[in-house]
Design goal:
alpha/beta; Rossmann fold; 2 domains; 4-stranded parallel β-sheet; 14 helices; 10 strands; 42% helix; 13% strand; binds guanosine-5'-triphosphate; binds magnesium ion
């Protein structure tokens, strides 16, 4: 994670537009020439905080924290400790209760941790209160995901989308920021704080920027619409799925292209479209940004044009990482997100990937647990791969296939399944035309 929080936010995770240089009144993300964002040289350390409700199983809590740690590491931070507090609902003022807050403060001070990451979104006032109490950078789930997106975005569209998400995140937090700044300047109670007029001015600056970015996205959208027109008629297939399940690996395999695939969350933020020809049947295959639980709606909205690739597809290939202990919930998250973007009723193939890694004995052993974890809680045994196959083949309404993209297992079957479905769509659309004629 960048020292000076990527788009120029200060240590509080917030930044006032007027802190910019005189020439440019709006906060600008600091990008390097290669499109990455400026990062600090020494690695930042982070502690994680989760507030699960009382009924959530320890194993689930652990799995969610593993995911949050993975996100934090992807953003460049090293996680040193996890704090969990079970509450009916988070504290309205400081998210965690007073006692837990004191514990976190003591740890952060003692270990010189640089930031505290929360597994949920914080309200602007919670963010402000936590900053005041802990005196380190506070990062909530949205900010963390936006930060990773900002590092990954390469195309003009993806960058503009990220910038829009950044300003939308900033807008409701401007007021809190003022309080923070006046406190930083040593302003006592008697000192006059910034007036409503100034806050309004800054809100206007940010709102203008948001409007500008939306317009820019519309322009970019028009350009890509023209591109899309030129490929009209060809069947379009989109790879969708939770983040890190192997979408880009499958894309590379099927299209022999070279899309960036990596064991990190959100390796793909830009969508890529490739023309693929299998058995003489051409179709367009697109690799898209992965989904994740609690993906902020705002962020989904900012990524509208990327998601159009999914909305406009004729067929969805839903990739699942079967080796992940939470794969069933991940399937639900993906289906729910597809509903949110109104792409749920498309024909779909379900591809269970990473069968080479599937191990019924596996449960989360590679962590130290967290304070408050119930050591007695048993692990439910997982079914064997054969049992899973039988269950899913029987219960799913969509065609199902089990593969390993890495070990090239069952790939010919995947190709055959794809071709069958693409051809069916094609012939339905053009009953009298050979697929080769549409290019
Ligand atoms: N063991 C194993 N690893 C795989 C398999 N398929 C992909 N991977 C690995 O899983 C990681 C994620 O793969 P990607 O293709 O980047 O996944 P993605 O779904 O595109 O991820 P995002 O773009 O981050 O959403 C990479 O390290 C891949 O090498 C597989 O079948 N088996
Ligand atoms: Mg990818």
């Amino acid at each position: 994670m960048a020292k000076n929080n990527d788009w120029g936010f200060n240590s509080s995770g917030t930044r006032h537009p007027n802190q910019d240089d005189g020439k440019n009144k709006t906060p600008q993300p600091k990008r390097n020439a290669d499109g990455t964002y400026e990062t600090g040289t020494e690695q930042e350390t982070a502690v994680l905080v989760a507030v699960p409700d009382k009924r959530q199983a320890d194993e689930k809590t652990q799995e969610y924290l593993d995911e949050l740690a993975f996100l934090a590491e992807t953003a460049g931070a090293q996680v040193t400790k996890r704090f969990v507090q079970r509450l009916e609902k988070p504290d309205t003022r400081t998210f965690v209760g007073e006692g837990k807050l004191a514990e976190i403060r003591a740890y952060v001070k003692h270990s010189k941790t640089s930031m505290v990451i929360f597994d949920d979104d914080l309200s602007p006032s919670q963010l402000r209160n936590l900053e005041a109490e802990l005196e380190v950078k506070i990062v909530d789930r949205s900010l963390l995901i936006i930060d990773i997106f900002a590092r990954r975005a390469k195309s003009a569209t993806a960058r503009t989308q990220v910038e829009l998400a950044q300003y939308q995140y900033l807008l409701p937090r401007l007021t809190g920021l003022w309080t923070h700044l006046s406190r930083q300047r040593g302003g006592g109670v008697s000192q006059r704080g910034p007036g409503e007029t100034e806050i309004e001015t800054d809100r206007r600056v940010v709102r203008d920027r948001i409007a500008f970015l939306k317009e820019k996205l519309e322009d970019l959208d028009k350009q890509s619409n023209t591109q899309r027109k030129s490929r009209e008629g060809v069947v379009r297939v989109a790879l969708v799925g939770y983040t890190n399940v192997g979408k880009s690996t499958i894309m590379n395999m099927l299209s022999r292209s070279d899309v960036f695939a990596e064991n990190k969350l959100f390796a793909t933020v830009d969508s890529t479209v490739r023309k693929v020809v299998l058995d003489n049947i051409p179709f367009l295959l697109s690799d898209t940004v992965g989904f994740i639980r609690k993906l902020p709606t705002r962020l989904i909205e900012s990524f509208k044009s990327t998601l159009d690739e999914i909305r406009e597809a004729d067929l969805l290939v839903h990739v699942v990482d079967i080796s992940h202990p939470g794969f069933e919930e991940q399937i639900e998250v993906v289906n729910d997100t597809l509903k949110d973007i109104e792409a749920a009723d498309k024909p779909m193939l379900l591809v269970f990937n990473k069968i080479d890694l599937y191990n019924p004995e596996a449960h989360n052993e590679n962590h130290d647990g967290f304070e408050g974890m119930n050591p007695e809680e048993g692990h439910t045994p997982r079914p064997t791969l054969e049992q899973l196959k039988a269950t899913y083949m029987a219960q799913m309404h969509d065609p199902v296939i089990f593969i390993s993209a890495q070990e090239r297992e069952n790939i010919d079957e995947l190709r055959a399944l794809l071709v069958r479905h693409v051809a069916a769509i094609h012939y339905k659309r053009y009953p009298n035309q050979q697929p080769q004629d549409v290019e």
